[in-house]
Write a structure and sequence with these properties.
This protein is an all-alpha fold. Helix content is 50%, strand content 0%. The two termini are 14 Å apart.
């Protein structure tokens, strides 16, 4: 997994949480309801479908 700065990580998680809150399918099985927490879990597992071009 690529190393991201704290700003990139926050942007990725925030963008993914917004997608999830608007109905995007979740990439892993979880009982979690909070979109931000789900996005954090996806980020930790490396399954978040967002990349940053440097």
């Amino acid at each position: 997994m690529t190393e991201y700065s704290r700003f990139e990580k926050a942007r990725i998680i925030g963008a993914r949480a917004l997608q999830i809150s608007r109905g995007a399918p979740v990439q892993l099985k979880t009982d979690e309801k909070d979109p931000i927490r789900i996005a954090e879990l996806e980020f930790e597992k490396g399954v978040i479908p967002i990349d940053i071009k440097k």
